[in-house]
Amino acid sequence: MRFLDEYREYDSVQRMAKEIHRIATHPWTIMEVCGGQTYTIVKSGLQELLPKGITLVHGPGCPVCVTPVAMIDRAVATASLPQVILCSFGDMLRVPGSAQSLLDAKALGADVRIVYSPLDALQLARLHPQREIVFFAVGFETTAPANAMAVWQAAREKLTNFSMLVSHVLVPPAMEAVLASPDCRVQAFLAAGHACMVTGYHEYLSISSTYLVPIVVTGFEPLDLLQGILMLVEQLESGRNEVENQYTRAVQQAGNTHAQQRVSEVFEVTDRVWRGIGNIASSGLRLRAAYRDFDAEFRFGLILEEAEESRECIAGLVLQGMRRPYDCPAFGTRCTPDTPLGAPMVSSEGACAAYFHFGRRKEDEPSLVSLASPCH
């Protein structure tokens, strides 16, 4: 397939890996901030191609994985209301809440439907004016434009039976939260190319200069990631801290300004709780007051008991790059894709699910506990 197969070509991958071996003289710890990148790294065994001193750790880059328990509980409670049709992307249905998942609610009679776009939910609102259509809006900056457009269109059509349960999160504040941790050992970042297609990468300039870390915007194929790693190692070895763009075929520094304008019109920045991590200031989006009629939290006003995470799950440490999935005692036994204790075992982009499906073992990779290098 054009523009895809060439980024998986075996000989090119080997040449890129050899170049990383050639220039790397020190141990470095690099974090990728995208679940899709984590999936490729684990599936392709990229860690095994790198020098022993280059360690890849997996960050909080899977939106399914970081959606908090309380928001899952709110989605379940909303779906269980009479007249509600709750629409969601399929990978959200099995994410466990404090007591139920959306799939459990569906089995008990709730009208929960899988859609492929918020515009599908908008069409349901047109077809079923007597029902309340709620779209569960999750994701990073990547999915925000489509969700903003759906709300904008609903307002334009004066659809009174359409609303969104919003749990949008933003990448840069999460990166800063990782770097600000006293236990941080991350020295460089592979930034998520699809998010940067929307936002550009100007926001990363201040992070790089403040924390003295190089950042490379990277794609999702093996060669994309290896080239991104090579660019980071070149910076680290030469003492540079810059923002560079490997994903030039899709990302421009300014991003998609039309998409940004629509998102800014409909959403505003807010604090957001990340599953397993906690509250991160200014790390999410919520609907602006002008669009409050389309806010499902405001519309239904549900008051729920405070939700608790599974005490057995160490997803928070995995999402911050402090532990590997197999460091969890429940990994692969009490926690599997069929019986997940935490969200990273649900999504295909979750680190735990990737490690489970592709058989990553402790002896295959460097230990995170033994890392001694500080992040800045």
UniProtKB/TrEMBL annotation:
Alphabetized UniProt keyword annotations: Iron, Metal-binding
NCBIfam families: hypD
GO terms, biological process: protein maturation
Protein name: Hydrogenase maturation protein HypD
Keyword Cytoplasm appears in the UniProt entry: no
Molecular functions (GO terms): 4 iron, 4 sulfur cluster binding; carbon monoxide binding; iron ion binding
Similarity comment: family membership: Belongs to the HypD family.
